[in-house]
């Protein structure tokens, strides 16, 4: 059997481990660090997302083997600010926090063992835990969370302009920062724009996740600027020319429409699960073979996605206990783990995959409760839809780059929204009781 030879640093980028600095990148980083330290608590996350949307992951400083990309430096600055200002004293540990911590630690340790590399997996795990901790410390209410997405809605306009220019000219102006090609990649005659993101699919997923949030904010607040943000996010995803991102985007209106039948969401979920089981029993091929028939653009590798899941299941004995460091022998090109669930299983075994699924399940349980009690019901459902869009995209991609931070940001804000919703509801109930007592 032929084994596909992958380039060195596959899945990481050739810039990893090498200091890469550009004056523009350094300037933006400096401004962002100063803003993180100086801004009010409710705006302190905005500079971090500014970096995510306009700076390539290639921008980094490597000191004695320690690799600090600009996103990691911003997270460290956030952490220092939280400790300096004592904002961590408002962090009250919740069951979801514990589960997130356990999952991240288990994933990092098992991945370090299975890959034989201690530094990078542990560093990424610590990075995500620090980001989660900082978000939980500074975004204490649902309005705080809304301000972050409001800022992202404003950023969508200039980002969309850059993507449209790239689609017209075929040149990526972010290439001066390194990490992205100067000339836009072409597949089946279609330009695959990526801007400052490490891959077109990651760019598409990032903005596909945000699309339902912007849509929910337009419905919730009736402001046209959020409708403009939806249009911008739509065009960004379309210019990436990827089946995975387009299908994820198209799923967003479906998930948002479920708000109308939210009281029956559990029945719909179990009914859909039962349909998949029935299809699996009556189909000649396994039910996940349906993925091979899905393709929104030319050149789609949907059959590869099916093969990856199929071999993942048939080779479960290899990764089940403590993951595995190689999938090259599964089939040609199987090193490219374009499925988040497969990636988690391969890197951290069944325990890591189980904890990941539990984390998703608990997220949905919490957000469903928030929708029931919050005054921001539609917006909360937008966050629900954003995570659902992620789960759809997981069938065709495993996150890296900026998408990892946005995905984990969704995990951190659910607890902030939950605590705020419970507090507001309790306060309203107490006020109602006082008014009732006054009437008596």
From TrEMBL:
<feature type="transmembrane region" description="Helical">
    <location>
        <begin position="344"/>
        <end position="364"/>
    </location>
</feature>
<feature type="transmembrane region" description="Helical">
    <location>
        <begin position="122"/>
        <end position="139"/>
    </location>
</feature>
<protein>
    <recommendedName>
        <fullName>O-antigen ligase domain-containing protein</fullName>
    </recommendedName>
</protein>
<feature type="transmembrane region" description="Helical">
    <location>
        <begin position="376"/>
        <end position="397"/>
    </location>
</feature>
<feature type="transmembrane region" description="Helical">
    <location>
        <begin position="267"/>
        <end position="291"/>
    </location>
</feature>
<feature type="transmembrane region" description="Helical">
    <location>
        <begin position="20"/>
        <end position="39"/>
    </location>
</feature>
<feature type="transmembrane region" description="Helical">
    <location>
        <begin position="226"/>
        <end position="255"/>
    </location>
</feature>
<feature type="transmembrane region" description="Helical">
    <location>
        <begin position="68"/>
        <end position="84"/>
    </location>
</feature>
<keyword id="KW-0472">Membrane</keyword>
<feature type="transmembrane region" description="Helical">
    <location>
        <begin position="96"/>
        <end position="116"/>
    </location>
</feature>
<feature type="transmembrane region" description="Helical">
    <location>
        <begin position="197"/>
        <end position="219"/>
    </location>
</feature>
<keyword id="KW-0812">Transmembrane</keyword>
<keyword id="KW-1133">Transmembrane helix</keyword>
<feature type="transmembrane region" description="Helical">
    <location>
        <begin position="151"/>
        <end position="177"/>
    </location>
</feature>
<feature type="transmembrane region" description="Helical">
    <location>
        <begin position="403"/>
        <end position="424"/>
    </location>
</feature>
């Amino acid at each position: 059997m032929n084994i596909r030879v992958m380039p060195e640093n596959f899945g990481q980028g050739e810039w990893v481990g090498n200091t890469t600095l550009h004056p523009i990148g350094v300037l933006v980083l400096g401004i962002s660090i100063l803003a993180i330290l100086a801004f009010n608590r409710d705006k302190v996350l905005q500079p971090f997302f500014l970096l995510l949307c306009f700076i390539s992951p290639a921008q980094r400083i490597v000191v004695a083997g320690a690799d600090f990309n600009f996103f990691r430096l911003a997270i460290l600055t956030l952490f220092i600010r939280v400790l300096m200002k004592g904002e961590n004293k408002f962090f009250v540990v919740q069951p979801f926090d514990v589960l997130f911590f356990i999952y991240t630690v288990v994933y990092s340790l098992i991945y370090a063992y299975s890959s034989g590399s201690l530094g990078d997996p542990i560093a990424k795990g610590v990075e995500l835990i620090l980001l989660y901790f900082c978000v939980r410390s500074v975004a204490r209410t649902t309005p705080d969370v809304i301000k972050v997405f409001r800022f992202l809605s404003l950023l969508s306009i200039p980002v969309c302009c850059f993507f449209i220019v790239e689609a017209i000219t075929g040149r990526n102006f972010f290439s001066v920062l390194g990490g992205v090609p100067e000339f836009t990649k072409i597949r089946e005659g279609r330009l695959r724009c990526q801007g400052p993101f490490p891959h077109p699919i990651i760019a598409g997923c990032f903005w596909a996740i945000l699309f339902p949030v912007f849509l929910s904010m337009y419905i919730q607040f009736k402001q046209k600027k959020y409708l403009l943000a939806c249009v911008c996010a739509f065009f960004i995803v379309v210019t990436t020319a990827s089946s995975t991102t387009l299908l994820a985007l198209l799923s967003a209106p479906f998930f948002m429409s479920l708000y109308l039948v939210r009281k029956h969401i559990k029945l719909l979920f179990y009914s859909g699960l039962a349909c998949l089981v029935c299809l699996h029993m009556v189909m000649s091929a396994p039910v996940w073979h349906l993925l091979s028939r899905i393709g929104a653009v030319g050149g789609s590798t949907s059959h590869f996605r099916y093969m990856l899941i199929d071999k993942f299941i048939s080779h479960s004995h290899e990764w089940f206990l403590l993951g595995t460091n190689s999938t090259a022998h599964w089939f040609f090109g199987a090193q490219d783990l374009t499925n988040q669930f497969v990636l988690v299983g391969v890197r951290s075994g069944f325990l890591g995959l189980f904890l990941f699924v539990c984390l998703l399940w608990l997220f949905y349980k919490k957000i469903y409760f928030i929708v029931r009690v919050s005054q921001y019901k539609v917006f909360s459902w937008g966050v629900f839809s954003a995570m659902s869009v992620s789960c759809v995209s997981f069938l065709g991609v495993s996150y890296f780059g900026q998408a990892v931070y946005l995905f984990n940001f969704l995990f951190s804000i659910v607890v902030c929204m939950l605590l705020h919703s419970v507090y507001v509801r309790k306060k309203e109930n107490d006020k109602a009781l006082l008014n009732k007592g006054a009437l008596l």
